[in-house]
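Ticket reopened. Same input as before:
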Amino acid sequence: MIHTRRFILSAASGLALIATLPAAAQEFITVASTTSTENSGLFGHILPLFQEETGIAVRVVSQGTGQALETGRRGDADVVFVHARAQEEAFVADGYGVQRVDVMYNDFVLVGPGDDPAGLRDAADARAAMAAIAGAGAAFASRGDDSGTHVAEMALWAAAGLAPAGGWYLATGSGMGATLNTAAQVPAYALTDRGTWLSFENRGDLELVFEGDPMLFNPYGIILVNPERHPHVKAAPGQAFIDWIISDAGQAAIASFTVGGEQLFFPGAD
Amino acid sequence: MDGPFATAFSLIASGDPALMQIIGLSLRVTLSAVVIACAVGLPLGAALALARFPGRGAVIVVFNALMGLPPVVAGLIVYLMLSRSGPLGSLALLFTPTAMVIAQTLLILPIVVSLTRSVVEDLWAEYREQLLSLGAGRLRAVPTLLWDGRVSLLTGVLAGFGRASAEVGAVLIVGGNIAGHTRTMTTAITLETARGNLGLAVALGIILMALTLTLNAAAWGAGQWARGRLG
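Engineering reply: fixed in the latest deploy. New output:
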């Protein structure tokens, strides 16, 4: 029967289609990282340099820090590159990672409506700024997703002796860019890493209203997933990436990444 | 707002290799999922229409309900299966295009099965006597009925294609939106939205819709041609 044959043919061509999906001809590692590094464009800048030097391709899966660490815990990445020091140290202590290494840092800033209803521009420090937002009941858009930025935000509320709740506190449960999109629409205050803020284009009425407190320091660490826990981890190329990113060449690559003339990340390797 | 349309046109005109790669991957993944879902779903749906067995009603209801399976749930199921810590972890398929094909197949299959069942059931009711008098048993009747219902079935297949090409939840989870490897039209749109690049995000959306429109027009044209030629 013609149609049966045709049917088998189409099934076969379907399998052929899958077979033509590009095979992993090249050596690669998988890095679980954060939305802030991907969205800012940092990886697009530094990874080609690494690949040129070593021939190793890097596949970046960008997630919130919490999700990226979970990806590492499950053995679905060779390297995690995130920013929430306490969680990173727990990751290593629990045996999922080999060692945490400092790579770079940037800082968090508070952005908000240009007319600054809570008066953050006059705040003495980050604690006072958070207290001013809560005191005024001004809208605040939170990541609410267990990301590094969310963890940092919760630490700031705790330092100010506050537990944010109420109609003014909007937990978006999404990435940094989506949260900034929300903040621009409401408009609301938001805590963001400087890198994402500088490269973010849909600012609307948002302006940078508070910066510079040492509490807003945002260090990034890199960890090789423990091959003893997950034997399939590509330890050698993974370590090569870590060695490169903390080398002079890698650190220079990070320092040379700018958006609109501004440097987004600062070398932080020892 | 001259932005998005102008951006879309200049993007296509530039032939940007990264964009072409993304479009190619999107089409390859979705078309593969459609073909596999049809290879499995057409005979399965026809069998479900003609066979009589205890629990048949329950199976039909489940397949109908699965048409509403949220893509993010389908993605999560496939993710947990393919994760290194999951039962199929040793295949190393997570964060690959193959994982995306599997997730999308899961999304399309219920549509193809349910629609095929419905179409074949109606045709069987209509031609039952005729087919039986010609000596065709239920099994032998399947190809004939599928062929007869091809125009209605094509609509179902296009609905499946539409669901797969439009979804982002599943491919984002199992593919990881890796640049140059598992980034599709929809995950690229999500990324550009997150970067606040709304103009570029809309431009990509326009290109995706243009592709979908082209494919549907081609399918419709083929259907018309087949109808005219074969009566």
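Chain A is about 40% helix and 25% strand. Chain A touches chain B at residues 1, 3-4, 7, 10-11, 13-15, 17-18, 20-22, 24, 30, 35, 38-39, 43-44, 59-62, 73-76, 175-178, 180-181, 199-203, 230, 232 (CB under 8 Å). Please confirm and we'll close it.
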